[in-house]
Amino acid sequence: REVLRLEGLRKSYNIGQPNEVEVLHGVDLCVDSADFAALVGPSGSGKSTLLNQIGLLDSPTDGELYLLGKPTREMDDEARTALRGRNIGFVFQFHHLIGAFTALENVLMPVMVARGKPDRETLDRARGLLADVGLEKYADRKPDQLSGGQQQRVAIARALITRPALLLADEPTGNLDTKTAADVFELLRRFNAQFGCAVLVVTHDPRLADTCDRTITLVDGRIDGDERHDAARADA
Ligand code: ADP
Ligand code: ADP
């Protein structure tokens, strides 16, 4: 199933000003629900800009972005936010967990923001996701009582609580040691298979990119390579 399609997507900043700059120069890309894809490229190539576009955090200057078949360029902020909330999960380099909340409450956050008090089913799903990431026993801990890897696993569970069709991760392991980073990629892979949730992950680490099924390379605001490959083992 097609989750995402970009057609001739362009993005400029500072439009109409002397420092106007086009950062994405017509990106075409298709992402399927089965995809577990790495987005790589040199610093400044436009990865964050592209991720902001795909995450519906910002609108394109030209071209079109379809999420689940819906064109999004003409959407107003409200519609964009609603579509994002229902269909996209985010994991960042820094987990952005709320320090005053327990792991379980953090996982429930996206639902509570959208709908208020979580129902029984949502609570069960949150506990299930914490179990899936190996943190069943840590549901009542605050973030500062968890290791960096555990915090990032809570952030992954939080990103999945709304059952997104697409999980976007921006350098989710940038802050973690090699073994913990490989574990996080294993988890992403498992959710990709288990939930049929497309995963797109920005990484600087070629070894981690090799553990994905597809590597999309961005250079100077253009897709410079898009290869499907058999996943290499992180510990190979
Ligand atoms: P990457 O994530 O690959 O490092 P970015 O998307 O952050 O690349 O940046 C790509 C280019 O766009 C850079 O030259 C950067 O300076 C520029 N850029 C990014 N965001 C803005 C912005 N808000 N205003 C102006 N230029 C920007
Ligand atoms: P069903 O078609 O019966 O909903 P799924 O395979 O879609 O079965 O889901 C199985 C379980 O995984 C359900 O409990 C569902 O809530 C959960 N689930 C499905 N997709 C996601 C997702 N993207 N993120 C988190 N949980 C999910």
Question: Any overview of this molecule?
Answer:
- InterPro entries: AAA+_ATPase (IPR003593), ABC_transporter-like_ATP-bd (IPR003439), ABC_transporter-like_CS (IPR017871), ABC_transpr_LolD-like (IPR015854), MacB-like_ATP-bd (IPR017911), P-loop_NTPase (IPR027417).
- The structure is a single chain.
- This protein has 236 residues and is α/β, with parallel strands linked by helices.
- The chain has helices at 47-54, 77-87, 103-115, 120-132, 148-160, 178-195, 206-209, and strands spanning 2-13, 21-32, 36-40, 62-67, 70-71, 88-91, 166-170, 198-202, 214-219, 222-228.
- Strands 6-7-8-3-9-10 form a six-stranded mixed sheet, with helices on both faces.
- A hairpin with a 2-residue loop joins strand 9 (214-219) and strand 10.
- Helix 3 crosses helix 4, helix 3 (103-115) runs parallel beside helix 5 and helix 5 packs parallel to helix 6 (178-195).
- The longest helix has 18 residues, at 178-195.
- 36% of the residues are buried.
- The structure holds adenosine-5'-diphosphate (2 copies).
- The site of one adenosine-5'-diphosphate has 12 residues, from strand 2 and helix 1.
- One adenosine-5'-diphosphate is lined by residues 125, 160, 163-164, 195, 197.
